[in-house]
Design brief:
Two copies of one chain form a homodimer. By secondary structure, chain A is α/β, with parallel strands linked by helices. Helices cover 39% and strands 15% of the residues of chain A.
């Protein structure tokens, strides 16, 4: 039995898959804060027009430019692996496959969209990208992409991570990016915060505001902002994950997966693995599709579907999505990439339609699963990825109890080599459980009442 | 043109290659400290008999047991990649290939032998392995292997690294190993040092002494010691690197490499990539084979060929090798894995025979090369690996000057994601150059005079 299924470079997918083309009900459009329709032209101050075009496209397939494919082939096609040692340990009749996105130079799935975004910006004549980063995975992915494509890059990194994770900063600098602690004296937004709270640890909300302001205030017009998750074009670029996995499952002799799993923060790696299979589900295939989020930030399992800002400062358009309220600040779990108050509109819509069934797991359960994984399969996963692993283990145990030879597929979104502090806490028994009491989100949800309501949707049955 | 050449799992080499079978002059045997011949039985207190058998074998091909192959296929066959972006940047007619050993769960080539050693120990009935580690690469590789094979593992980690690299320690613990700062109160050797110097940063020499003593003093007889480089069996296990590369070069349409490069500390990754090609060279192929060492520890370029201890404390047999003297302490360069006073006897013998042509590079030149690599090829290399990259760049530039379409192959021995501190120093202009003045090794070489001289060898011409 083969441990890994590799695709040849020539078999890399040549198109991205756009779920917007197949959703039973069209996406509800982004709105301006006053509830009026948003003109795509308004987005073009922040993103280049060729990316805005992708953002609003409803074409099913979008060609991947050859030059992007050439950079992606540094690590793509990524291996599909079979977790034989874990299966044996669990004594499960299930066959567990995982799509290994940890092999990119930045160690996660993030470069799939970073490379595409950098390329489209360059093609549009942009010289410089700005972005924010929390734990550093997205910032390093964009730094990597800009380095190879030839763009300047400035990353606003949340102050506390900037101080606690100097190696992530060094990684970005090695790829030539400028990495600045946020709040910074470079922007109005940053200076205002520093004046009020000179010793603040910063937040993703502040860092987004700084990065957007920085791009907008470049008078040459040659700077733009780049986002690592949530938006339609970002999710589109990630579908190469699921499209490759589909080809590889076929090579492995599997007709289809019975269960598809991905962890969710903003939604991009989950969308990457799941969307091509959601397409099959819409067209009749029986597949259970599970996004897994932390109990500390249970957007899809406990939040309402409503119009809300994508960022804390309220600079983005209003998006129709599951949300815990844009003021919600999640507890400091180690899976920093899953600490986001909202959920990608495309993922949210799939939830509304009943196409996906979310779950929430506590981080202690996830680290237990990550430890079992490391000691059977050998690789140390990212804290985010451990959520998908925990769910895959649950599903494999269920398959044993039911005596079913299920095919389980999940996205191994990244390795944990730059994020070992959580393992240290787990091993020394100091890891905290976080389960969000409902009353804690009531206040931040109140703020949503002033926005137009998201439409009720008559959903299909899957 | 393809960026990477992958082998299918079924094409993984089924045998290791033993250079001892082909060396024009037989290896000079290890000696007891008094100069008498060493009985292999004496080694069996430290290593299991099946490993001692490999250590002294002169069979050309040694079968790789199926169970070892099954674990190696977690990440093997490893990709052979073509450095197209670097070639373009250098405007070289050379074709640069690199064998990517960074894809193992521990991030370097070390697991190739760790898995084999753990398996042979387990098969021999051993329950527990001890070892030492400096920067942590070898310790984490052995922890990984013991975890998957089911052995207990205790790693004595040099105190200064234990304190400065807590993440490497967490990595070992995640794989279930016990990681102890050395000197420790667990051994006579450790206690003696602590009594004299309670605040010592420790050294590899002390850690080796502790690990060996620990294994020897287990009264159950079920503990053994494991070494990550230098010895014949370790180099043997690494030859899978070069054997795979050979198959892959063939797939790429290359008849043979013109230049083969690897960095050298104890010699194991260099041996891995080079030995199968040294075999071709002995049988007539024209190949330049270059081990690259740091100018701070120029064993092969400046040391004499002599009998010396493998460790600082003098616990090992005397080995015929290039050496800077077992008391030599190299400057604190960032490539911790290349800070070794001696050189593997098999690599040393290949040098004596004129089969390889060593070079020494300063670390500043190596980091410059690593930065260029990260910004063209996209991956951040280990500080050790940057020595091989620097040499590959020199050779590619030479090929341009000569107008020759040379085929350059080197071993990309590991990624640098756990060792970014050196990059930080380089970027901030604080990296120190180290070139060893000859007078500094004179004293430690004096100590060799009491040992029997290594025989002069009449060498062939290549």
């Amino acid at each position: 039995m083969r441990k890994k299924i590799l695709l040849d470079e020539k078999d890399i997918p040549k198109q991205w898959y756009n779920l917007a083309a197949d959703l039973p009900t069209p996406l509800q459009p982004p709105l301006a804060p006053d509830g009026t329709a948003l003109n795509p032209k308004m987005l073009e101050r922040v993103f280049p027009a060729n990316i805005v075009e992708q953002e609003i496209s409803t074409c099913r397939w979008i060609d991947i430019p050859q030059e992007i494919l050439e950079i992606l082939t540094i690590w793509r096609p990524a291996p599909l692996r079979r977790a034989l040692a874990l299966e044996k340990y669990l004594k499960t009749p299930a066959r567990i496959y995982y799509k290994d996105e940890s092999t990119s130079p930045a160690g996660s799935h993030k470069p799939n969209t970073a490379v595409a975004q950098a390329w489209y910006n360059k093609k549009f004549g942009i010289k410089r990208l700005t972005t924010e980063t929390g734990a550093g995975q997205w910032g390093s992915a964009l730094a990597f992409a800009c380095s190879l494509i030839g763009l300047k890059c400035r990353v606003y990194m949340v102050r506390i991570s900037f101080d606690q994770k100097p190696m992530r900063r060094t990684m970005m600098q090695t790829w030539g990016a400028e990495c600045i602690a946020s709040p910074s004296p470079h922007t109005h937004a940053g200076r205002a915060v520093l004046k009020e709270m000179p010793h603040t640890p910063g937040s993703l909300g502040i860092a987004i505001s700084e990065a957007v302001e920085d791009a907008l205030s470049d008078k040459s017009g040659k700077s733009r902002y780049s986002l690592g998750s949530v938006l339609n074009h970002v999710l589109l670029h990630q579908t190469i994950i699921g499209l490759e996995a589909k080809k590889q499952l076929k090579i492995a002799g599997e007709k289809k997966p019975d269960v598809v799993i991905g962890c969710v923060g903003g939604g991009s790696n989950f969308a990457g693995i799941a969307f091509p299979f959601i397409c099959d589900k819409i067209h009749g295939a029986k597949i259970e599709i599970i996004p897994v989020e932390p109990t500390a930030c249970p957007t899809l399992t406990k939040g309402p579907f409503a119009y809300d800002f994508g960022d804390v400062a309220g600079l983005t358009p209003l998006l129709a999505m599951y949300t815990l309220g844009h003021n919600f600040i999640p507890e400091p779990i180690h899976a920093g990439g899953l600490r986001y108050h909202g959920m990608a509109p495309l993922v949210s819509q799939a939830r509304v339609e009943g196409l996906i069934k979310p779950r929430a797991y506590d981080q202690v359960k996830c680290y237990e699963s990550a430890m079992l994984w490391a000691r059977t399969e050998g690789m140390i996963p990212a804290p985010e990825t451990s959520h998908a692993i925990a769910c895959a283990i649950d599903e494999a145990n269920k398959a044993r109890q039911e005596g079913k030879k299920k095919v389980i597929l999940f996205c191994y979104s990244g390795h944990g080599l730059m994020d070992l502090a959580g393992y240290d806490k787990f091993i020394s028994g100091k890891l905290t459980r976080y389960s969000l009491p409902v009353h804690k989100i009531r206040d931040s949800l109140c703020a949503l009442k002033k926005f137009p309501p998201a439409k009720k949707i008559k959903t299909g049955k899957w």
